[in-house]
TrEMBL record:
The lineage of its organism: Bacteria, Bacillati, Actinomycetota, Actinomycetes, Streptosporangiales. Residues 1-27 form the signal peptide. The keyword Signal applies. Keywords: Signal. InterPro entries: Peptidase_S1_PA, Peptidase_S1_PA_chymotrypsin. The keyword Zinc-finger does not apply. This is Peptidase. Gene3D superfamilies: Trypsin-like serine proteases. It comes from the Bacteria.
Length: 412
């Protein structure tokens, strides 16, 4: 999805992330939790659909692209405000403070793409009896792994999880692929189990609450060729015999039958467990109720063109920008308490990009303090120059808290 916003803002006093902040406070507000893949079988079916045909459906996916235009007249006079004490949650592996510094920007392993689609269908291949698996409207956004009790949590924009276009509950066939590049899944595929957002975003599409946290199952391993080439799967899985009733619940790309009638045997593909997301790529910390004006790194997969037609980004590789946050608003999407940062990221693909404060190059870890929900051309030169995010306050921490202690388990 691409939200193209226009807004005004005022620069707030800059500040550094303080050491020894108060313990995270509780938060008011309602939390909406929605199942994505409620069972392990459902999760395996989803993974198989995306990875069939040599991961062709991942490769064919395009940035989620729904445009929201706002006239550039509103000027923010107040901006966001903390609703309780500032707080932080340390990143995975960074519970002890690190003081190492580096001038180079080492990209985080935690970032990746989330994929979703309207559905899948079997399409006959001319001249053969074969039907290939084709995704209907496959799209992707940016997301990041974040700290949680079971190292199984992903953070992104709410509009990358909840379907605000078709008035459905959530987007379908949702997976997270950290480090994704042209069909390759270096740390596995993680199927979403349950999504959490704020009630105001789910019901009213409130831009101030456009964020989501998703618990994911353990990753599954598959080669670049996916299930299309069984010979490549001998070292990472295989077919196992099961009863017919269970067999019937699986997608056709995961199962086979040998024999007929009473003597028939039924088999399904057994994936190999890739382990927990946080164990494989780490997880960023979380910072909320912070002062506006902090410097942040923004990591995402921008794609698409600027208004003048210039394609500055391909969406294929992770990019970064850097700047200090400032107060912003966009009343057309019911967002009065946003933060902005100067960035040339284009909207397509960058939706859900992570805003990291206190980012440490050596550890590739920091504190998540925002997610991109839109971009804007504030000087009217036909080039996007600003990204915006909801302000992370105590209500966001309440949504995070609802998700962070939930176990997912393995679908292998």
């Amino acid at each position: 999805m691409k939200r193209t916003l226009a807004f005004g803002g005022v620069v707030a006093t800059a500040g550094l992330l303080a050491a020894g902040l108060a313990a995270p406070a509780g938060a008011a507000g309602d939390v909406v939790g929605t199942p994505l893949a409620a069972s392990g079988i459902a999760g395996k079916n989803i993974a198989a659909l995306w990875l069939a045909e040599g991961a062709a459906n991942l490769i064919a996916a395009t940035p989620y692209d729904v445009e929201t235009k706002v006239v550039a007249k509103h000027i923010s006079t107040g901006g966001p405000a903390a609703d309780s004490k500032p707080g932080v949650v340390p990143a995975i592996g960074d519970e002890k403070k690190s003081t190492a510094k580096s001038k180079n920007v080492n990209l985080p392993k935690t970032s990746g793409k989330v994929f979703f689609a309207d559905g899948f269908k079997l399409v006959p291949v001319p001249g053969t009896n074969y039907k290939k698996v084709v995704a209907d409207n496959p799209h992707w956004c940016t997301a990041t792994s974040i700290q949680s009790t079971y190292k199984n949590l992903v953070a992104t924009a709410g509009s990358c999880v909840y379907d605000t276009v078709n008035n459905k509950s959530t987007l379908n066939y949702w997976i997270f692929v950290p480090g994704y590049y042209q069909g390759k899944t270096p740390w596995g595929v993680y199927v979403g189990k349950q999504a959490f957002t704020h009630y105001d975003f789910d019901v009213y599409e409130d831009g101030d609450r456009d964020y989501a946290f998703v618990t994911v199952y353990n990753g599954v391993k598959l080669p670049h060729g996916g299930l299309a080439d069984v010979k490549k799967l001998t070292d990472i899985g295989g077919f196992v015999e099961i009863d017919k009733a269970t067999w019937e619940k699986y997608a056709p790309y995961l199962k086979k039958q040998e024999g007929e009638g009473a003597s028939a045997k039924y088999y399904v593909w057994k994936f190999v467990d890739a382990g927990r997301l946080g164990d494989n790529v780490g997880g960023q910390g979380l910072a909320y109720n912070q002062k506006v004006g902090k410097p942040v790194f923004v990591f995402g997969y921008p794609s698409g063109s600027h208004p003048d037609g210039n394609y500055a980004y391909s969406g294929k590789t992770l990019k970064w920008s850097y700047g200090k946050t400032f107060a912003a608003s966009a009343s057309a999407i019911k967002a009065e308490e946003l933060i902005g940062v100067k960035s040339s990221f284009t909207g397509e693909g960058a939706l859900g990009s992570s805003w990291l404060v206190g980012y440490k190059n050596t550890r590739r870890l920091g504190y998540l303090n925002g997610v991109t929900i839109g971009v804007s051309d504030t000087d009217s030169n036909n080039r996007y120059d600003t990204s915006v995010s909801p302000y992370f306050d105590g209500e966001l921490f309440g949504v995070y808290s609802a998700a962070k202690n939930l176990w997912s388990g393995s679908i292998a």
